[in-house]
Amino acid sequence: MNNEKKRKIYRHGDVLLYEIFENEFSNDKLERFNEERFIIKKMVNKINEFVIKEGAGGHKHILVSDKNFYVFEGSDLKLNENIIFIKLENCRGILKHEEHKDIQVEEGLYAVLCERNFNYLTDDWENIND
Hints:
The protein is mostly beta strands. The strands form two sheets. Strands 1, 2, 3, 4, 5, 6, 7, 8 and 9 form a nine-stranded antiparallel beta sheet that branches. The chain is globular and about 45 Å long.
């Protein structure tokens, strides 16, 4: 029997919450985990509502909880860009958006990844906004 824990991934339009396992997380130096890819730089806030992304039409992806959760700034070294991390500890959250069904998010540490497309005319990545 396979005892591996399955990674939780939540897709909500153009936003993806990608679970980071606790064994990929260590408290050395800049609170690094999965050193070849992610670095947490600093804690931004401990709150119970956070706007993950706002689209061009003013619609927002918002994570809400009945308890406070942690929001961190960090970097994805593989993609060479800054990203946000969210840690739901002893609580669950609800991911909301005006054009999508609400999704319940379980306790855990998540990297927030946003959908992008590569534009071959400009030779650069572009964010997708729903």
